[in-house]
Amino acid sequence: MTPSLADDIAEVLISEAAIEARVRELAAEISRDYAENSLHLVGVLRGATIFLADLVRRLTIPVTFDFIAISSYGADTRSTGIVRLVKDLDESVESRHVLIVEDVVDTGLTLNYLLEVLRQRKAASVEVCALLDKPARRRVSAAAKYVGFTVPDAFVVGYGLDYAQRYRNLPYIGALRPEVYGG
Ligand code: IMP
């Protein structure tokens, strides 16, 4: 039989249906909160692309979006602690109401760096919408205003999240079998 991506998943943590329902709730909340202000989303490549694509289609307010890429990992499952800007935004955020769309807040280092960059560039406001929060591994304080799900300290993949660039296309979020990453 052809090996399937799903064979590497130890457990499905968040089903496709649960993600869809939560994305609708988040979009309703964000649409209410930004009813008076035009909203500019900053998606963090590449993990947040699928979440952002689903989220924007549920927002009922006008919205623009741009992408930024930050690196703190190699092909490993642990942050190196060194955050670097890999791809900058195409547009200025000055005087705009920015909502960072992130896949997961883990150590908090990426978010901390991003918040600093966007504030320096004089955004009118900066908030964060994270699909997942993994508070157990936080190294610096970083709070997201909107959180999809809080997850335990496991390496998770799917719905945009990768291990060595794979598994992003799984429609659910699952824990990877430790033997896949030598854990
Ligand atoms: P932080 O800087 O440690 O908060 O890490 C944020 C980035 O690490 C996320 O945007 C993800 O790209 C990656 N990351 C953290 N935990 C996981 C995970 O469990 N699976 C996949 N990627 C992760």
What is the element layout, followed by pairings?
Layout: E1 9-14, H1 16-33, E2 39-45, H2 49-58, E3 63-71, E4 84-87, E5 97-105, H3 109-120, E6 125-133, E7 146-150, E8 156-157, E9 173-176
Parallel strand pairs: 2-3, 2-5, 5-6, 6-7
Antiparallel strand pairs: 1-9, 3-4, 8-9
Helix pairs in contact: 1-2
This protein binds inosinic acid.
Structure description:
The chain is of the alpha/beta class. It has one domain: Rossmann fold. 22% of the residues lie in helices and 30% in strands. It contains three helices and nine strands, in the order βαβαβββαββββ. The strands form two sheets. A six-stranded mixed sheet has the order 4-3-2-5-6-7, with helices on both faces. The protein has a three-stranded antiparallel sheet with strand order 1-9-8, covered by helices on one side. Strand 2 (39-45), helix 2 (49-58) and strand 3 form a beta-alpha-beta unit. Helix 1 (16-33) packs across helix 2 (49-58). The mean pLDDT is 92.
